[in-house]
Amino acid sequence: MSSPGPSGDVPMLIEARGIEKSFPGVRALRGVDFDLHRGEVHALMGENGAGKSTLMKILTGVYQPDAGEIRVEGKPVTITGPHAAQALGIGIIHQELYLMNHLTAAQNIFIGREPRYGAGMFVDEKKMNADAAALFNRMQVKIDPAAEVGHMTVARQQLVEIAKALSFNSKVLIMDEPTSALNAAEVEHLFAIIRDLRSRGVGIVYISHKMDEIKRISDRITVMRDGQYVGTLPAEGTSISKIISMMVGRELADASRAEGEARAEVALRVTGLNRGAVIRDVSFELRKGEILGFAGLMGAGRTEVARAIFGADQIDSGTIEVHGKEQKIPTPRDAVKAGLAYLSEDRKHFGLVTPMSVVDNVTMASWPRFTSGGVWMRNSALRKTAADYVRLLKVKTPSVDQETRLLSGGNQQKVVIAKWLLRDCDILFFDEPTRGIDVGAKAEIYKMLQGLAADGKAIVVISSELEEVLRLSHRIVVMCEGRITGELDGRTATQESIMTLATQRQGKAA
Amino acid sequence: MTDTTLTASADKPGFITTAALQKAVAFVVLIVLLGFFSIFAPNFAAWNNMVNIMQATAVNGVLGVAVTFVIISAGIDLSVGTMMTLTAVTAGIVLTNLGMPLPIGILGAMLAGALMGAINGVVIAKLKIPPFIATLGMMQVSRGLALVVSGAKPIYFNSTPGYQYISPESSISLIIPGLEIPNGVLVMFGVALISSIVLTRTLLGRYIFALGSNEEAARLSGVNVDFWKIVTYSICGMISGIAGLLISSRLNSAQPALGLGYELDAIAAVVIGGTSLSGGRGTVLGTIIGAFIMSVLTNGLRVMGVQEEWKIVITGIIIIIAVYVDNVLRKKT
Question: What CATH architecture does domain A260-339+426-439+453-510 belong to?
Answer without folding.
Answer: 3-Layer(aba) Sandwich (3.40)
